[in-house]
């Protein structure tokens, strides 16, 4: 039977979300209260279970991002057959959980599925069935051939295996070195079938190249992805080609607030040219299931399997781009006055929207920071007794007494937070994380929890990591946590997102209105103001904070939220004496552990 408190709660959720009311008598409409797209239900599985009862379904409404869905039948009698055959009986939930159902008076119509009917960006072309199954097998064998690759080219990144042909793609700079071709790893001859096929279709008449000279092969396992990015303008000519083999996947294209999802079928070729190549980012979310459209216009889920992509590029020489899309163009950005002006702007931003803010909110902020993260505690427990540990950006010092067998020190820039820590008896001092007043090679371990995402440029974030590496002894280890831009992992929300519940939606709307007014007043900054407890839309944002004593004033904290693999790339740039030994995702944070060699 359904637990007595569960059923009303599930009904309350759909009423709050969709203004859908339950019916005590049979209707044509049914709600599946506890299973939907967000916990892995597909339209096919739902219909198979419904048809097994003898009932007929005229429409399915799968709700994006929700753990419920709806069915409409031809008659109330058909709905009754399905209800009696599935409610508390059909094992279609996660881990075989039974489905809870209810008659409802009406079924909402969700517009999210319409995103699949949007026009593609100009210059984006998808050619389905571009290669046959036999040609797919030949291509996979060619790029996997040991004669074609060496250990140097067969790298394993955090979330995928990568091989390069022609030239090595350098992930630290998203570029190539044109002076260092891979002379013994040319693009396999098996790929030559592609170019004549494109020429026959006259697709390449306006391209900047006729054949590529660089190929990157990525092997993705289910659950793997790649952060949103644009292939560096100055490095490569137009267009970029990507051939999908072995499995379908959904790729997301973004420009500003606009997002378009595109299903890349197995054996399809994606062509990104012009606007689509230069002005839109593209990426793949790390998931095991993709939400995809059905032939009837509804939504369903589709499990991923291993996928291999072949990305073809042609080097631009000289490395100067003259495109008309300056927003993402590295040539245009590098031509702007930078260095000293950029450093001064970053310092000013951090002073106003980090240091001054934390001094003003320190007492209230400290009251909300009392529970240590379990994996941080586990890291501290991995050190030998009497090891020396430095917590860089220690705040109120909550990690300094997690392991009393360690000799732990803390430092922070905020005078207000330091006063809280000192009142608790911790050994802490004030300094800037960019210049630690600590002797080199003197610490066994370092912590940096939610600190460097407050630094406003990549160079400053890298400098903070280098300071931690400097003070570590050989063999010493550092743990770094930063906020992730993607606050979901495997379709599960982080703790940050879960705090935005239905009961707080009106409060959220009011907060958005206040933030809009605040943004209009803050004409000195072009940074967007983030809506708390929602997905991040940009990497560089101002995050609001209100103290419990004065709800009328909003403090804006600067954050740079990290894309996947961005933190690992920074660690790889520290120096040759540092080794990345672990990276992971923990409740909305990207995390790394690195060791001083």
TrEMBL record:
Gene3D superfamilies: 3.30.70.330, Alpha-ketoglutarate-dependent dioxygenase AlkB-like, Vaccinia Virus protein VP39. Residues 507-522 have a biased composition (Basic and acidic residues). It holds the Pfam family 2OG-FeII_Oxy_2. GO terms for biological process: tRNA methylation; tRNA wobble uridine modification. One of its GO terms (molecular function) is oxidoreductase activity. SUPFAM superfamilies: Clavaminate synthase-like, RNA-binding domain, RBD, S-adenosyl-L-methionine-dependent methyltransferases. Residues 502-522 are annotated as: Disordered. The keyword 4Fe-4S does not apply. Its cofactor is Fe(2+). It comes from the Eukaryota. This is Fe2OG dioxygenase domain-containing protein. It comes from Drosophila willistoni. The gene is Dwil\GK17905.
